[in-house]
Amino acid sequence: MKKLKIDLHNTMLLDDEDYYFLKGLEWRIEIHNGKDKYASTKRSRDFAQHYIMRVKKGKRIIFKDGNGLNLQKSNLRYAI
């Protein structure tokens, strides 16, 4: 597991194999429902979980622990 800092207060938790690809992109935090944090690219606003799970924009990914910045594959699953 590796950590990728987004800003002063937010860090993504990533599997080693995803870290090296995602560290090359610029990230920002998006807040949904006033509390839920997710990482998205600054340029295209694509969510990190879509890169990791290899799904198209608009498909939902569930974070098993509820933490939108814990992007380890063991914490992600496809929404039904």
Q: Would you mind describing this structure in some detail?
A:
The protein is built from two helices and six strands, in the order E-E-H-E-E-H-E-E. The protein has 80 residues and is an alpha+beta fold. The chain has one domain (2-78). Strand 1 (2-5) and strand 2 form a beta hairpin. The chain is globular, with a radius of gyration of 12 Å. The relative contact order is 0.21. The mean pLDDT is 92.
Tally the helices: 2
- The helix-strand sequence is EEHEEHEE
Helicity, as a percent range:
10-25%
- Give the biggest sheet: 2 strands, antiparallel
Are there runs of 5+ residues with pLDDT below 50, and where? Answer: none
Question: Radius of gyration, rounded?
Answer: 12 Å
Mean pLDDT value: 92
Query: How many domain modules?
Result: 1
Strand fraction equals: 25-35%
- Helix/strand-derived class? alpha+beta
Quaternary status: single chain
Write a brief caption for the model:
With 80 residues, this protein is α+β, with helices and mostly antiparallel strands. It has helices spanning 16-22, 48-53; strands spanning 2-5, 11-14, 27-32, 36-41, 61-63, 76-78. It has one domain (2-78).
Ordered list of secondary-structure elements with their pairings:
Blueprint: E1 2-5, E2 11-14, H1 16-22, E3 27-32, E4 36-41, H2 48-53, E5 61-63, E6 76-78
Antiparallel strand pairs: 1-2, 3-4, 5-6
